[in-house]
């Protein structure tokens, strides 16, 4: 729409934006976790590199619509029953840049498809991600005995470099992402006790999922 613009959401307003997503809990739990992740990261580094949050025409308080750019990743959501504001916001993103769109909800797919058609974008890959929930009570019943020759330890940035080199979806910016996840989010690796070699890893993503 003529006159539309993406307006930066102040860092100080992210908590207020997050609180909007307590509505109909836990329907928007993933989005709530996204925002909590960035609130936490901004406490660590006020000048968070490659991070920006926008709303359409500064209307985030009215409809919860936001677009977050984090390196090569793009996150977005809206509380509107229609996708009108979200679609208009996505149309204003700089699509000359290659984005990895992560974790959007199925009912927002029409906005994504309209944006792809309007800007004649080329898809590198497109698939559905399923996130499963497990209660703490059930998780505690699992047998998590580790084989005697292996041990768990926190991931380091060095481990992130190796994980990225083996990741089939690695791209420009993915190593930086994994390093930051290793540094700032609880992430764990499985290591050979004798050699110290990492044999498996699990990063906690911005959504809180592993």
Automatic annotation (TrEMBL):
The record's listing under InterPro entries reads: Acyl-CoA_N-acyltransferase, Acyl_CoA_acyltransferase
User: What Gene3D superfamilies is this protein classified in?
Assistant: 3.40.630.30
Q: Which domain of life, per UniProt?
A: Eukaryota
Protein name as annotated: Uncharacterized protein
Source organism per entry reads: Anopheles maculatus
């Amino acid at each position: 729409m003529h006159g539309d613009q993406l307006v930066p959401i102040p860092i100080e307003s992210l908590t207020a934006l997050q609180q909007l997503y307590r509505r109909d809990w836990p329907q928007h739990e993933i989005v709530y976790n996204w925002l909590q992740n960035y609130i936490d990261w901004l406490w660590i580094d006020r000048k968070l590199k490659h991070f920006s949050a926008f709303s359409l025409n500064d209307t985030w308080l009215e409809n919860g619509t936001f677009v977050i750019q984090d390196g090569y990743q793009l996150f977005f959501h809206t509380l509107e029953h229609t996708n009108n504001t979200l679609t208009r916001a996505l149309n204003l993103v700089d699509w000359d840049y290659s984005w990895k769109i992560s974790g959007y909800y199925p009912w927002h797919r029409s906005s994504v498809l309209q944006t792809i058609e309007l800007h004649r974008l080329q898809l590198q890959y497109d698939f559905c991600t399923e996130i499963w929930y497990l209660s703490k009570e059930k998780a505690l019943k699992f047998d998590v005995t580790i084989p005697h020759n292996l041990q768990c330890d926190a991931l380091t940035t060095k481990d992130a470099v190796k994980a990225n080199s083996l990741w089939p979806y690695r791209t420009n910016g993915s190593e930086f992402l994994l390093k930051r996840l290793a540094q700032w989010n609880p992430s764990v690796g499985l290591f050979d006790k004798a050699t110290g070699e990492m044999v498996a890893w699990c990063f906690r993503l911005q959504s809180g999922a592993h």
